[in-house]
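Weekly modeling sync, notes
Attendees: S.R. (lead), two postdocs, one rotation student

Agenda item 3: backlog of single-chain predictions. S.R. asked that every request posted to the team notebook include the full sequence so nobody has to chase files. The rotation student volunteered to paste the first one in as an example of the format we agreed on. Action items at the bottom.

Example entry:
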Amino acid sequence: MSQFANLLTILSLFCGFLSVLLSLAGQFTFSAFAIIFSVCLDGLDGQVARKFQALSDFGRELDSLVDVVSFGIAPVLLGYIFIYNEFYSWAIAGLFIYLLCAVVRLARYNICEKTPEQNYFIGLPTTVSGGILASFILIYRRQAIPPKFISAFFILLLLSLAYLMVSRARYLNLDGLKQAFGRILKPVILGVFITLSLALYRDKLGVALFSIFLIYLIFSPFVVKRLNNV
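Predicted structure, as returned to the notebook:
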C-alpha cells in the first residue's frame, strides 16, 4: 500500500506540473483547478499511508518535494502570469518570499519531531495556502473583485500566507479535525460536499472553496487551543 500512497503523491505532482503548463498556455481557470485537485490528492495520499500503516521516510520526503511544486511554484506562476504578466520588482519580491516560506515550512516539517497524539501542524500547511491562492484566482476570474485593487490585494494575501506558513501558529491536522468534530465528522464532510456541488451548479465554486479554506485558516488555531487546553 505504500506504493499506492506514493502513486497518489505522484498524481499530485502531475497536477502541479499540469497547472504550470496551463498557466503558460493562458488557461488560468484550469490551472487553478489543477492545484485544487492536487490539494485533494495530497490529503488522500497521507490518509492511505496512515490507514495501511505504510508511512516511510521516502514517502514523506517525496510528499514534501511534490508540495514545493504543487503549492509553491504552481500558484506563484499562476498568480504572476495571470495578475501581473509584466516584470514588476515588488511583485517578484512578494512571489519569491511566498515561495521561500513554503520551502522553509516544508523543510521544518520534515525535521520536526512528531508524537502520535499530536493533533496539529505548526505553521499553515502549504496545501491550504496553495488552495487559497488557486481559489482566489477562480474568484477573480469571475470579476468578483475590482481589477484596480487586485495587484495590491494579491501581494498582501501572498505575504500574509507566507508569514503564517513559517509562524508558530498551530493548525489542525486530520487527527485534530476528527477530534474536533467527533461523531459529526462524516455529516460535516457530506455537508461540505453538498455545498461544493451546489456552488458548482451556481457557478460559485471559487467563492465556496475560498470560504472553506479561509474558515480553516482563521478558526483552526482557536480550535487547537481549545482541544489542548493551553
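Discussion: group reviewed the output briefly. The longest strand covers residues 120-122.
Action items: rotation student to repeat for the remaining queue; S.R. to check formatting next week.
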